UniProtKB/TrEMBL annotation:
Transketolase-like pyrimidine-binding domain: residues covered: 10-175
Name recorded for this polypeptide: Transketolase family protein
Source organism per UniProt: Flammeovirga agarivorans
Protein family: Belongs to the transketolase family.
UniProt xrefs under Gene3D superfamilies: 3.40.50.920, 3.40.50.970
Extent of the signal sequence: none
InterPro entries from the UniProt entry: PDH/Transketolase, THDP-binding, Transketo_C/PFOR_II, Transketolase-like_Pyr-bd, Transketolase_C
Pfam families xrefs: Transket_pyr, Transketolase_C
Length: 317
């Protein structure tokens, strides 16, 4: 089992802020719009250095999406910034009609996703956004795992022609991915194994790595794959791995319905039948608490991934 280590923790939203600032220096067509959450989205550096390309839209998310769509007509590459909850359910009609249906080149930057924004509570802890966004034709859906990957994904999103939903989080988490490496739709192999495939996305990638180390101590060889792009999904990487290991665990900070696990299940039922276990939130809203408390309560820890892996292996027969 390859040991992934880290020397620091950073929040993924800061990775977005760093990537956006870098884009500001690289491309004069990149503009940024924010719904009164500049500090929370770490857009301060872009605002300071490129004030003529920063637009504070106030608490008017629907208007922000429509303005961003209009900017693309003039060749601009707009990034909209607010919490994931407000980036999706509050403005779904505008995204569907003005961005996805129209194929506009808008990049929707969604922070504070999942349970790990913690104490803000259930009304802000969006757990259905991946499902909402992946169902929209033309929409690319990205869910990054650490600071480095979020920064690289932000830059890659700007280079991609078409709508992108970029999902990231609030808490400081381990930084373990290499800098500057990101290809939309291409899964990243973290550890090769033979007994079980574990595919994870977002904050659950680190939990999957920890789970792999625990399984290795018990003589179980886990193949661990970082699925940063939910749509388009790297079906080839998933199928190649599952055909080798014979079973799979999907791990995500999202509802079971509509998330990565559901997408993987769709691939398996049509192309290669194999036992699958889900590590995800099971049809419930969250609550107020620390990120660690919520991950434990809702079954999203490395220990939960270990238990799911063992169950999947048992089902192989």
């Amino acid at each position: 089992m390859k040991k992934y280590t880290y020397t620091e923790k950073k929040d993924t939203r800061s990775g977005f802020g760093a990537g956006l600032h870098e884009l500001g220096k690289m491309n004069e067509d990149v503009v940024a719009l924010c719904a009164d959450l500049t500090g929370s989205l770490k857009m301060d550096a872009f605002k300071k250095d490129f004030p003529e390309r920063f637009f504070q839209m106030g608490i008017a998310e629907a208007n922000m999406i429509n303005v961003a769509a209009g900017m693309t007509v003039g060749g601009k590459i707009p990034f909209t910034g607010t919490f994931a909850n407000f980036s999706t359910s509050r403005v779904y009609d505008q995204i569907r009609q003005s961005v996805a249906y129209s194929g506009k080149n808008v990049k929707i930057a969604a922070s504070h996703s999942g349970l790990t924004l913690g104490e803000d509570g259930a009304t802000h802890q969006v757990l259905e956004d991946i499902g909402m966004m992946k169902m929209l034709p033309n929409m690319t859906v990205i869910n990054t795992c650490d600071f480095n990957q979020t920064k690289a994904a932000t830059i890659a999103a700007a280079k991609h022609d078409g709508p992108v939903y970029l999902r990231f989080g609030r808490p400081a988490i381990p930084v373990f991915m290499p800098e500057g490496e990101f290809e939309i739709g291409k899964a990243v192999m973290l550890n090769e194994g033979t007994d079980v495939t574990i595919v994870a996305t977002g904050h659950l990638v680190w939990e999957a790595i920890l789970a792999g180390e625990k399984l290795a101590e018990e003589g179980i060889s886990a193949e661990i794959i970082n699925i940063h792009t939910i749509k388009p999904l790297d079906e080839e990487a998933i199928l190649k791995s599952v055909k080798k290991t014979g079973c799979i665990v999907t791990a995500e900070e999202h509802q079971i319905a509509g998330g990565l696990g559901e997408s993987v299940a769709g691939v398996l039922t049509t192309k290669f039948l194999a036992p699958q276990e889900f590590v995800a939130v099971n049809d419930t809203f969250g609550e107020s608490g620390t990120p660690a408390q919520l991950m434990e309560k809702y079954g999203l820890t490395s220990n939960d991934v270990v238990a799911a892996a063992k169950k999947a292996i048992e089902r192989k027969g």
